[in-house]
Design brief:
By secondary structure, the protein is α+β, with helices and mostly antiparallel strands. Helix content is about 45%, strand content about 15%. The termini are far apart.
């Protein structure tokens, strides 16, 4: 009899203990996705976050803004959700057309992860500052209905062979990751390292202008050997057809 009483007391204490747990103080939107045994088997798609950037007439694109978005806005999300994003990459473009200057973060994950990634981006304080000052005109996210980009190759160039379409996302993720690491490394070396909680948009732009200048110089002087030569070596030094110009653009 006493044994049964002890069991019931233990059960009641366990129930009370669960009831006394305090809810998280974090907003719902920023909660990390709770992994389950089935998370890696959910339907995955390619998702885009497109950042449209101010580009005044008769001015060069603000290329340093791409670095600011990658380092201050996207990098924290990648760190938080790295276990749930299978593939990702950046895309940069600027042309005098309807799209204009646009920086894109593209990632391959399930819709539950995409929803939380989008929410985390929206809560970013630097993104909010860039919007308020007009540096970012618009942020465009995928609709959750009708996303048909479910294959690994879905966002590769359709003119490539099937083999290259399937393999290319792994290559471009590596180069995107390298570029992001270069931004972080050079940024931390700068004497004017920023406290993003108190800095102004002007200070942020000046900082990433200097980071961008350094990266451009390193790409110009070392990219041929560090990237192009070793890429060629990986493919057994086989020749590749290029459009020959004085300054080679690949």
């Amino acid at each position: 009899m006493r044994y049964h009483i002890f069991i019931w007391v233990a059960i009641l204490l366990a129930i009370c203990g669960c009831a006394m747990v305090q809810p998280s103080s974090k907003p719902k939107e920023s909660a990390v996705f709770q992994a389950s045994a089935d998370v890696h088997f959910l339907q995955k798609n390619w998702w885009y976050a497109r950042f449209r950037i101010e580009w005044p007439e008769d001015a060069e694109p603000f290329w340093h803004t791409d670095l600011m978005i990658a380092h201050q806005v996207v990098a924290p999300v990648l760190k938080q959700y790295q276990d749930f994003i299978n593939l990702w990459r950046f895309h940069r473009r600027a042309a005098r057309d309807q799209t204009g200057h646009q920086f894109s973060f593209i990632f391959y994950a399930g819709p539950e992860i995409a929803d939380q990634v989008y929410n985390c981006l929206e809560l970013n304080s630097v993104l909010k500052l860039m919007r308020e000052t007009g540096l970012i005109i618009e942020v465009i996210y995928n609709d959750f209905d009708g996303n048909t980009r479910s294959e690994i190759s879905s966002t590769s160039d359709p003119h490539w062979s099937e083999t290259i379409r399937n393999a290319w996302p792994y290559f471009i993720m590596g180069t995107s990751n390298m570029w992001l690491h270069m931004i972080g490394d050079i940024s931390s070396q700068m004497a004017d390292c920023l406290d993003t909680d108190t800095t102004t948009i002007e200070k942020l732009q000046m900082h990433y202008q200097k980071v961008n200048k350094t990266i451009n110089m390193q790409w110009r002087n070392q990219g041929n050997h560090a990237l192009l030569h070793h890429l060629n070596a990986l493919f057994g030094y086989q020749p590749v057809v290029v459009n020959e110009k004085r300054e080679m653009i690949f």
